[in-house]
Amino acid sequence: MKKKPVFIAFSTQKGGVGKTTFTVLTASYLHYACGYNLIVVDCDYPQFSINAMRQRDAQGVDCNPALQELAATQFSELQKPTYTILCATAEVAVDTVREYLDTHDSDTDFVFFDLPGTINNDGVLTTLSGMDYIFTPISADRISLESTLSFSAIIKEAITDNTDTANKGIYLFWNMVDGREKTPLYAMYEKVIAELGLPVLKTAVPNTTRYKKEVMEEGTTLFRSTIFPASRTLLRGSRLKELVEEILSIVKPEAYGRKE
């Protein structure tokens, strides 16, 4: 009997706050740096942005000898290929994954879903209801935050608090935080968030351009990639490692039958 992988979505109604970026960064860190096996489902129809990123990554490797050497070393050490990216509309995303898992001999720990930034699409709500966990990036922009909190409150009521779903929680986390520490403004926002019954992760991600850094034409210093984990140089100070560790402490993949 195959184990059940953990279904996770970084999801928000507001665009530009990092859901696709965190999907890729977390997936790559878990797959290449932590040794987990996973699948990413790209539901960003019709552009399929993560699948397009994989194509850019592959082209970058093709024209960069240093990255070719890095890829060869990584494959030799991990003894496994890059993670699978499935393209599907939100309406059929969960069924697409289940069909893939039924027809492939894979030892999958996680499945990450990158969904459109709207709940006006019935398929998005349906897919979110099939998630084990939902993580939502938030920023201290009033308009963006109000929109995201409205979205999160709806998800909590319709999905997380619904005993008919398997969802175990929606968790918010601060992204694009200015400065080294959160200001009193964040405490005020978190008070409102607490009143809505929405948990916030301890890890806050700083506002840094490295989260947009993809494969370079020269060298091997890269951050956001579907083929490599974030480079150690750029990982420092990014809080990505801390974010992934906190997520793992919540989802507890071993509870789903992870094999060592």
Q: Short summary of the structure?
A:
The protein is α/β, with parallel strands linked by helices.
Assigned CATH class: Alpha Beta
The CATH topology is Rossmann fold
Mean pLDDT, nearest integer? 89
Number of separate strands: 6
Quick one: CATH superfamily? Answer: P-loop containing nucleotide triphosphate hydrolases
Helix content: 40-55%
Biggest sheet: strand arrangement = 3-2-4-1-5-6
From the helix content, strand content and strand pairing, which structural class follows? Answer: alpha/beta
**What count of helical segments does DSSP give?**
9
Low-confidence stretches: none
Report on the architecture of this protein.
It holds the Pfam family CbiA. It comes from Segatella maculosa OT 289. Residues 8-217 form the CobQ/CobB/MinD/ParA nucleotide binding domain. This protein has a single domain (6-247), classed as 3-Layer(aba) Sandwich (Rossmann fold). The mean pLDDT is 89. Helices cover 42% and strands 12% of the residues. It has 260 residues and is of the alpha/beta class. Strands 3-2-4-1-5-6 form a 6-stranded parallel β-sheet, with helices on both faces. It is built from 9 helices and 6 strands, in the order βαβααβαβαβαβααα. The longest helix is centred in the middle third of the chain and has 19 residues, at 142-160.
